[in-house]
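Entry 0007
Protein: KASH5 protein
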Amino acid sequence: SSQQALEQARAATEELEDLKAMAKGLEEENSELRWQARQLVRGPASSLQQNQRLLAEGHGLREQIQVLAAETADLEVSSGSHAAWPMPSASL
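Output (structure tokens):
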């Protein structure tokens, strides 16, 4: 009977070691899944921020173009005609 108890104790010890290994593997998988989830959340958020920044830059550039177009129109009106302006060279 003591031999049987010893075998049961060994089997229980092996099962415990297997369960510990399984728990460790699940913890590692859980960590990996959490990391992937953080990356998935950050990806769209950073893309959204970048898109918003680019839209703001585009809006600012459109405003600059409008200002420059108005200044160009004023210069053309004040000089009488833009035909008198020299043509840009091909090297520019």
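Curator remark: The two ends are 100 Å apart (CA to CA). The first helix runs from residue 2 to 79.
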